[in-house]
Amino acid sequence: RESMQRELTERLAEVQDFEDRLDILRRYRTEEFLRIGIHDSNGLLDVFEVTEQLTNLAEVCLNGAYDVARTALMEQLGYAQLPGQFAIVGMGKLGAGELNYNSDLDLIFLYDPTEERPAGRTSPQEFFTKLVQRLISVLQVQTREGNVYKIDTRLRPSGRSGSLVSSLAAFVRYHETSSQLWERQALIKARVITAEPPLHEAI
Questions:
Q1: What does the buried/exposed string (b/e) look like for 17-53 if buried means 16 or more CB atoms within 10 Å of the residue's CB?
Q2: What is the pLDDT of residues 107-136, one digit of tens each?
């Protein structure tokens, strides 16, 4: 997985244009998807190795897409650093490491805001909502190279009617006071994909 991440990061670093980065993500995902499929069909991988490699590929692409989305949004809004820590949490088959060739990615997005907000800046909730919207677009938008993955965010607090991103405090409060049993059961498969160490540990 580390070598895959390094390769994708190097490819993305070779270009600065946003659209070119979208195509690099898609080409990389397609190439690796085909590699896994060919090795699978030739009997070089067992079913557990296939699911592991498909899960690793999804995580690598998620990290790459996050870097593309974060960089573009921070440049657009003039931010030198994020207004807090951000986390991508895999749910369902991604969280359990059980992806197959047709899997969507079930995701939850969380953040922990910085204590101080500079004057004139948008709130952390607004910023991270825009970041998640950009990230989903990076992954789902159709270009000449196709898309990267379909994203499903319905496991977030309050489902379709809830915010795309929640602060960690609001997420904990929701599950302590309002969530349904099936929502808490879904957390059994939750796994942090991307987060800075302090937020990762807190989650």
A1: eeeebbebbbebbeebeeebeeebeeeebeeeebbbb
A2: 999 999 987 766 667 899 999 999 999 999
